[in-house]
Amino acid sequence: MSGIILEVKNLKKYFPVLKGLVFMKQIGLIKAVDDISFTINRGETFGLVGESGCGKTTTAKLILLMEKITCGEIVFDGKKIDQQSDVDLIEYKNSVKAVFQDPYSSLSPRMRVGGIIAEPMVVSKTFSHKEIRERVSTLLDLVGLHPDSNNLYPHEFSGGQRQRIAVARALALNPKLIILDEPVSALDISIRAQIINLLRDLQNKLGVTYLLIAHDLAVVKHMSKKIGVMYLGKLVEVAESKRLYRNPLHPYTQALLSAALPSHPDIRQEEIILSGEVPSPLNPPLGCRFHTRCFNAEAVCSEEEPILKEVEENHQVACHLIKI
Amino acid sequence: MVFNSITQMRRMPIFSVLFLVIFLICGIFGSSLAPLDPTDGDLSRSLIPPFQDRNYPLGTDHLGRDILSRIICGARISMIVCIMVIFFAGSIGTVLALLSGYIGGKVDIIIMRIVDTMLSIPYMMIAIALAAILRPSLFNIIILLSILGWTGYARVIRGEVLRIKDSDFVKLAKIDGCSKTRILIHHIFPNIVNTLVILATLQVGAVIIIESSLSFLGLGVPPPAPSWGGMLADSRSYISNWWLSTFPGLTIMATVLSCNLLGEWLRLQMDPQFRQK
Ligand SMILES: Nc1ncnc2c1ncn2[C@@H]1O[C@H](COP(=O)(O)OP(=O)(O)OP(=O)(O)O)[C@@H](O)[C@H]1O
Ligand SMILES: [Mg+2]
After folding, report:
1. What is the pLDDT of residues B143-202, one digit of tens each?
2. What pLDDT, in 10s, does the model give residues B3-38?
3. How far away is chain B from the Cα of A154, in angstroms, using its nearest Cα?
4. From CA B128, how far away is CA B148, in angstroms rounded?
């Protein structure tokens, strides 16, 4: 079964900046996520990349309903997700799980691995003790851990193994979508490939969909079918992975790509060094948010905000300078 | 569970444990263990120095009562007060800290302002004031020390709760649909137990010292019931008869020290990260 599993429409998250102790006064808005839309196909991986602070985690939190949506819609499996109604949410919450960046903080130090993995099943109350026990050993096997691990505490595992435990927990209820928020950023370089391979194998075996968040393109490259590039709360380019690497259109994507290591040491590439700092999301630049650092900005860029438009099949860019 | 290897046993502060076992035995069976009646005085044998009379190995006080027997029986009061105060203060403090830290908002503000207010007044001052209002009795001492003692737990544990609440495993638990109660019981509480044990063992020392101080000031458990602080109080006018103050003083010191050492060891044992090493 293919088709769209998750559709995000005009999603916005503004954090109010408050001042004062008793009578909190709002003095501004942090536009952490500002009007982004994308779709994820069933069984595929959608990569979301961007610099630190551009709103990737906030997007993930919105999809996970951990934060209140300021504006916009999430459509999952054809159904609009309403943050108010509890009834539909249970199914949604069981179908959307997450793995976070820090494998040390994402496992309770006082719970045995078995308990950690079993918790979603225990809470859902639809499994018997025996089923849970069997499922835990299946899951441990699935993520490549020894079945005896379930009696151990998380501190007895390395970072990579902990991330495997986190993945096993995320898989417990057979979710349709797993949000991977920088799943390998905190790991040793040598372990990263293992976890990435594990995730890919699991996808092949189980047909689960991923939203893979990363701040560099190297990790996303090997896994994603589609990639979205974020800058200051906006999506600046969305394209099929291959197209994006072959033909990056947005200047920011070009800069990101040139900063990534080439796939072969003989390949020479010119590195584009961006000048300046990322502007604060508290008062983002008018017009194109990237124009303050763009190397070929024109007058129109500081005046008008570009919208994301399709320039070729499966390739959308938000840039004034790209003419169709 | 805790005692599962020889190495761990080796690190156990054996003297502290021994001393505390003796303390507990004395506390429970005090009156039947004591060689003599701790309240039986006879002025004809008052102020016998220690190690001179075989019947009174630690000497007698100004009323001729056997000091060893009084120390043994005095353990009961210290023990009861400690256990009860730690239980009440610890429970109140922990529950309020969990609510305060986890619910936050107005609940947090109200609870923490109460804590701040109580912590800003010197401990002994409230103790003395309250002890003067309430009639001195064992029950009142326990109430008093519990009212005073919970703030320490509340303050420290609230900080821990805030820290744990923000960690990813709690966020994941929420995503997985755990209820607030489940998160509090299964995720937050187990992670503050360490802190709780440390605070409790530290409080043993504090409670014994305050209880003794109150007795010393005549606001504690009323005489003639033997209590360590009371014995110190009685010895004030007999400074030259050193044994009157030295033996109860050493007992208090040894008890407090043992508790702190044992607490430190327990803390390491209960931390899964240290259990292996
Ligand atoms: N709860 C919050 N209140 C106020 N501002 C917030 C909050 N959460 C995030 N922000 C702001 O929103 C912006 C985006 O944050 P976010 O965590 O989504 O970035 P990110 O892309 O995940 O970065 P990183 O790569 O560092 O994880 C940041 O400027 C951050 O300061
Ligand atoms: Mg992030």
Report:
1. 888 988 899 899 999 999 999 999 999 999 999 889 999 999 999 999 998 889 888 887
2. 555 566 667 788 888 999 999 999 888 778 877 877
3. 9
4. 11
- Sign of the torsion angle spanned by Cα atoms A247, A253, A254, A259: negative
Helices (H) and strands (E) in chain A, counts: 9, 12
All structural domains of chain B, each given as residue ranges with its CATH number in brackets, are 2-275 (1.10.3720.10)
Q: Which residues line ligand 1 (CB under 6 A)?
A: A 15, 30, 32, 50, 52-58, 215, 281
Determine the straight-line distance between the first and last CA of chain A, rounded to whole angstroms.
Answer: 33
pLDDT at A262: 63
ipTM: 0.87
Largest CA-CA distance found in chain A, in angstroms, rounded: 67
For residue A14, give the 3-state DSSP assignment. strand
Closest CA to B58 of B243, B250, B228, B231: B243
Locus of tokens 């690190």:
B11
Stretches in chain A below the pLDDT threshold 50: none
- Mean pLDDT over the full length of chain B: 84
Q: Whose CA is nearest to atom 13 of ligand 1?
A: A32
CA-nearest of B101, B83, B103 to B93 is B101
Q: Is A1 helix (H, G, I), strand (E, B) or coil?
A: coil
Asked if B258 and B79 touch (Cβ cutoff 8 Å), the reply is no
Neighboring chain A residues of B4 at a CB cutoff of 8 Å: none
The Cα B269–Cα A95 span in angstroms is: 39
- Taking the centre of ligand 2 as the mean of its atom positions, its distance from the CA of residue A100, in whole angstroms, is 9
Is residue A176 a contact partner of residue A92, using CB atoms and an 8 Å limit?
A: no
Nearest to A261 by CA among A297, A218, A211, A304: A218
Q: What is the spatial distance between Cα A66 and Cα B27, in angstroms, rounded to a whole number?
A: 53
Dist CA A44 CA B210 (whole Å): 67
Q: Distance between CA A238 and CA B13 in Å, rounded? A: 64
A190: its two tokens: 């040598």
- The sign of the torsion formed by the CA atoms of B15, B20, B23, B29 equals negative
User: Which domains, and CATH codes, for chain A?
Assistant: 1-7+38-224 (3.40.50.300), 234-262+270-324 (no CATH)
What are the structure tokens assigned to B32, written together?
């039947």
